[in-house]
Design a protein that fits this description.
It is built from 2 helices and 2 strands; from the N terminus they run H-H-E-E. With 76 residues, it is mainly alpha-helical. It has a domain of 53 residues. The longest helix has 19 residues.
């Protein structure tokens, strides 16, 4: 059940509950391209290939990693 935001309304949601399905899908996609990998290997690959320092508006508390997951295909 959604929230009625009215005309021009905006709802921003964030956090691990929003990131988890995206990273899980990316992991599945990458496994089809890269072949079988141990979970630790796949996580390292995703972290190593992420675009660093491109997200703006993050809290300045130093607890949020500034890395945007990348699927490895610059055309997408």
């Amino acid at each position: 059940m959604g929230t009625d935001l009215g005309a021009g309304g905006q709802n921003t949601i964030s956090g691990t509950s929003m990131a988890t399905p995206h990273i899980t899908g990316l992991g599945a996609y990458l496994l089809t391209l890269l072949g079988k990998k141990a979970p630790q290997e796949l996580c390292k690959y995703i972290a190593d290939t992420a675009n660093k320092g491109v997200i703006t508006g993050l809290p300045s508390n130093g607890k949020t990693l500034n890395a945007l997951a990348f699927n490895g295909n610059p055309a997408e």
